[in-house]
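Standup notes
- DV: blocked on the single-chain target, sequence here:
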Amino acid sequence: MSDSPISNANKVTAKSGRLHYSEPIVISENTRTKIEALPYFIDHSGEEKLTLKINFFTKNPTSRQWEHNKQKSFSLADSTVPKLKRAIDQFEALLGRPADAQYLLVPLGEASFQIGRTEKAKAVQALLNALSDPQILAHLDLGKLTDEVAQALKGRVRIAEMERAIRQLELMLGSEENAVILYQKWFDEHYWVLGNAYVAKDDLRSSSATDRVDLLMHHTAAGMRDIIELKRPNMPVLHFDNAHRNFYFAADVSSAIGQCHRYLEVFSEEASSGLRDAPHIVAHYPEAVIVIGRSEGWPADKQKALRGLNSRLNGIKVMTFDHVLAQARALLDCVRPAEMEVDEAAQTRSSLDELNF
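- DV (later): unblocked, structure below
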């Protein structure tokens, strides 16, 4: 095994002029085989990237010369080289550590530093960033931590979960995915987007012997239940009557309003003192929220029209999926610490404006 360093650190320009390379690094060598890593420096849109060619050689028994084995040789892409380096760094961190034990190896990324050469605040921030993964938090014994640290870790994980949920909803809407069952699963997992008024959802979905709703939500104010009805994002929400110069609900929305009216009436009758098979689920003047269609790019007068039409409904509210997304972003902004905020002032103002429906 050889630990030979690069003999010449100067970069050499290839004949094509499109890349540079340096002297090969001998990774392994014995009497029969040799492995070398040949560094290449390639320009990608003005940024130089490092890639490695791993070359295998076998020694010819007659001439005793090294012969290149092309079948075993391969190249590492520029995106793979940093991953390999991080993996080696992590494995080296285990040197001298006792066996049969698990360790948390913290990747510090661009904010890497040596403890003792930077402020304590940065060290804590880097650790919190690394512990944002719920899988890591699940293996920690929070009972051994101070209340402040435990709460900080839980808060950071919660924020990371909210950010992932928002990105997922953005991707679903951006890909024009319209299957209601996928959005129902998303709302099941992230019901917090409906606002702080709701503390939890019920696994039970039957509001009566014959009616099955998308979500039954537990209201924090009195412990009663409300109904959430999900429709497709590609359904129209409002139309404009040119003759009377006013907006009105599209047919799909009107149908959903009628559907929720029935749900509310039957649910109020069936569960005024609690459902027969679930007495803890009580309906007392329940309300319904319909999530349907998109409102991205709506002008101000159309946003105001939906708000006005909603104000004339009794116990039923119509939201678009973009309103839900805006509400989720606004909730995230409320819980995100100041040091985590990025320059999103324009987006935040837009989100709050969209909530005014």
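- Follow-up: The first strand starts at residue 12 and ends at 13.
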